[in-house]
């Protein structure tokens, strides 16, 4: 029996929706359940599906996850810790979680009203999402729990992760839409955002370090308002010249003037470009100009040739991913057009058959017209079946080739992590320049003071102040150097992990894509052979051009 005829999602729609769950079909992890099986291969009947808990539930509560239904779609960039069940597979859903498993589902979007309201139409309301989690990671207090979060909370989580995990390839969060008003309240927009947020959390849960972070744990577990403090906005930083972390206020950093306190170690471990301190931004900008325009060789430079080669290769990879993703989109569009045309051709043959039956004897012999009607109806039925089969193949193709777009989006995280390394190096260079300037200032004051009989008390005080500043700046430089070394090591391990995961995922992608094309070709050939037998013609003696590969 043929699958229900449905329009496949567009390539762009699929890119922002979760992947179908992974099932085991003849040892292949890429093929999903619920499809057509042909010669050992399985044609999945849908794409972009989520787990049983994944849709917008009619329930208004955010109940704990039941069974294993939360084990829905998962990112291809995962470390694949724990076991995963395909959506709708009750047996797999009831299975216990594996060691260190972490499954997250975002569901049940609900509208809420801002306490203060808004003058902008639709601006006084927002949407909350139920975030349901199942885990066996020991750092979590329970194995199953759920909380409600709004998009602003996801932004806060992303900001805190960016601050705490510099140098890691942190999956990028969904962008905040610039669309306001009623469009943001539409069901389509809310569902698209829900799927994007779910995929984002699943990517975080797949990261071997972030999945155990305190920030993610608080986000997933803490009930009520998110306790994570959002980053201070740029305007308040400009007024205060500081950033507040709890009750601690960090002073201004990286001033040349000896009248201002030198940087503290807590300051230099964070980047300046986020607006943390305008004076530090200007000082590091000055250092950047000096580096680029030949203002003298910095005391420390990037000399890791292996890292620079890998960085260049990743940039080339991004360009190839962009081109391949574009060609994949072209393929999907072309196959979609073929399926549509095949279905329309089938309907045209069926209309022709109806005409032949209704006007039998009017334009020829009745016997011939009935035979023509039968043949046309068989041809039309086969064409419609091929069109439906084509839609199923397109759905699987989008699932498999969509991995290209996944990795293309992940390149943003790669750029950010490598920018963290460059910024950390710039901080070290700036501090070392500051140190050299302060020491030169001390030498100059000492030389001037030595010319005065009995010493110059004013210059002596300045020398003492500068000496204390030098000691503090040296301590800050050491901390900045440690942070730079730490980010270097994180970059190294992340590039290695990224390369291994990409090799595994791309092999699975190609394997699944080939199997889908083979299954489609075999099933299509079978339909045409059956049609040839039905119209009384000779059954083609040949086998399909594509045979099952040994993969």
Describe the protein's architecture and organization.
It comes from Chara braunii. GO terms for molecular function: phosphatidylinositol binding. This protein is mainly α and 551 residues long. The protein folds into two domains: 50-221, PX Domain (2-Layer Sandwich), CATH 3.30.1520; 285-534, Arfaptin homology (AH) domain/BAR domain (Substrate Binding Domain Of Dnak, Chain:A, Domain 2), CATH 1.20.1270.60. The protein has eleven helices and seven strands. The protein has helices spanning 11-15, 90-93, 151-164, 187-206, 214-221, 234-240, 265-268, 278-292, 305-358, 366-450, 457-534, and strands at residues 36-38, 41-43, 102-113, 125-135, 144-150, 244-245, 248-249. The protein has a three-stranded antiparallel sheet with strand order 3-4-5. A hairpin with a 2-residue loop joins β6 and β7 (248-249). α8 packs across α10, α9 (305-358) packs antiparallel against α10 and α10 (366-450) packs antiparallel against α11 (457-534). The longest helix is centred in the C-terminal third of the chain and has 85 residues, at 366-450. It starts with 10 loop residues before the first helix and ends in a 17-residue tail after the last helix.
């Amino acid at each position: 029996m043929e699958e229900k005829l449905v329009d496949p999602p567009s390539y762009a729609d699929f890119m922002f929706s979760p992947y179908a769950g992974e099932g085991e079909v003849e040892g292949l992890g890429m093929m999903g359940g619920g499809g057509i099986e042909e010669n050992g291969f399985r044609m999945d009947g849908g794409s972009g599906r989520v787990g049983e808990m994944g849709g917008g539930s009619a329930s208004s509560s955010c109940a704990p996850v039941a069974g294993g239904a939360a084990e829905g779609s998962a990112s291809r960039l995962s470390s694949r810790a724990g076991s995963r069940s395909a959506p709708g597979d009750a047996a797999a859903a009831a299975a216990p979680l594996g060691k260190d498993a972490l499954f997250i589902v975002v569901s049940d979007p609900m509208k809420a009203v801002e306490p203060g309201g808004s003058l902008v139409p639709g601006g006084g309301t927002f949407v909350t999402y139920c975030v349901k989690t199942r885990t066996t990671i020991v750092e979590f207090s329970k194995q199953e729990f759920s909380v409600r979060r709004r998009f602003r909370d996801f932004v806060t989580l992303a900001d805190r992760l960016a601050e705490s995990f510099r140098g890691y390839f942190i999956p990028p969060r969904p962008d905040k839409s610039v669309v306001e008003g009623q469009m943001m309240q539409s069901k389509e927009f809310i569902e698209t955002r829900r799927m994007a947020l779910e995929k984002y959390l699943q990517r975080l849960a797949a990261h071997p370090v972030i999945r155990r972070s305190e920030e993610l744990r608080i986000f997933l577990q803490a009930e009520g308002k998110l306790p994570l403090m959002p980053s201070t906005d740029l305007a308040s930083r400009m007024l205060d010249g500081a950033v507040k972390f709890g009750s601690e206020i960090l002073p201004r950093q990286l001033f040349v003037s000896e009248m201002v306190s030198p940087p503290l170690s807590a300051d230099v471990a964070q980047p300046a470009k986020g607006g943390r301190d305008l004076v530090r931004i200007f000082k590091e900008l000055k250092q950047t100009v000096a580096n680029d325009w030949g203002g003298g060789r910095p005391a420390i430079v990037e000399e890791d040739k292996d890292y620079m080669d890998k960085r260049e290769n990743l940039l080339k990879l991004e360009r190839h991913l962009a081109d391949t993703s574009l060609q994949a989109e072209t393929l999907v569009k072309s196959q979609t057009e073929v399926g549509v045309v095949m279905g329309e051709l089938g309907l045209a043959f069926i209309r022709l058959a109806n005409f032949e039956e209704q006007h039998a004897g009017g334009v020829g012999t009745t016997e011939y017209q009935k035979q023509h009607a039968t043949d046309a109806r068989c041809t039309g039925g086969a064409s419609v079946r091929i069109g439906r089969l084509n839609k199923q193949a397109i759905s699987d193709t989008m699932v498999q080739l969509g991995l290209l777009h996944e990795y293309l989006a992940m390149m943003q995280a790669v750029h950010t992590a490598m920018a963290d390394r460059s910024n950390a190096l710039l901080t070290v260079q700036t501090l070392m320049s500051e140190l050299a300037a302060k020491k030169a200032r001390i030498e100059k004051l000492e030389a001037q003071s030595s010319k005065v009989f009995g010493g110059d008390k004013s210059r002596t005080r300045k020398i003492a102040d500068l000496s204390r500043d030098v000691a503090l700046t040296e301590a800050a430089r050491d901390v900045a150097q440690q942070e730079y070394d730490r980010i270097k090591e994180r970059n190294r391990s992340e590039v290695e992990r990224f390369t291994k995961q990409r090799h595994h995922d791309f092999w699975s992608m190609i394997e699944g894509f080939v199997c889908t094309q083979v299954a489609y070709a075999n099933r299509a050939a079978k339909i045409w052979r059956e049609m040839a037998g039905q119209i009384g013609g000779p059954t083609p003696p040949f086998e399909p051009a594509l045979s099952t590969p040994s993969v």
